[in-house]
Amino acid sequence: MLNLKERKLDTLYHFYIENGDNLTIEEIAEGIGVTPKTIFNRYHSREEMENELQIYWRQQILNDVNSKMEFCNNQVEKLLFLINEILTAQKSSAFFFERELEMRKIFGNEPDNSFAYAVQQIIDEDKNFFIFSERVNPEIYSQYFIYVIFNILVINKNPQLIDFLLTPILTDEGVEILSDIDIERLLE
């Protein structure tokens, strides 16, 4: 259940998703049913407002991913699911996606607030499954993984890139799991 502040931010977030970012503060205020003064009381500038929305966007995706990952069978599926959610977000919320690239927040390793940290957690959770090679440094690899997803896979949705990205860090068991997954269908 969202508290009052989160509900207000959620309303503003959905307005941005539906209407884009090329609106004036007056148009935004009217669209969410408040005055421009109310917006400036909540956020001291448009930049601050958009920064709050960006954090909210990122958190929404990560919360979605985390809640759905409990249904994944293994860490490989979790990484592929994260890729799918990122690609979906690129289509459904392009403004926030592009802004994420510009802000470079995707590479942060702050707990609960970055995509790289989510990848690092997935790899770290593998201690009992032995899907990832022990040579993998989760913190460094997570940066590389997110860079490739945001900067290469988004542009060129080639399933072979996912094999290229994951195979070197997987054990034989991990490679077998990956080969059982229809990656082309994931990228549709």
Report on the structure:
This protein has 188 residues and is mainly alpha-helical. It has a domain of 116 residues. It has eleven helices and no strands. The longest helix is centred in the N-terminal third of the chain and has 24 residues. The protein starts with a helix and ends with a helix. The mean pLDDT is 84.
Question: Which key terms come to mind for this protein?
Answer:
0% strand; mainly alpha; 188 residues
Label the overall shape. Answer: elongated
Q: How is the biggest beta sheet arranged?
A: none
What is the H-and-E element order? HHHHHHHHHHH
Taking the alpha carbons of the first and last residues, their distance comes to: 33 Å
| Average pLDDT score | 84
Number of helices: 11
Please tally the β strands and state the result.
0
Radius of gyration: 18 Å
Structural class: mainly alpha
Strand content: under 5%
Quaternary organization:
single chain
Low-confidence stretches: none
The percent range for helix content is 55-70%
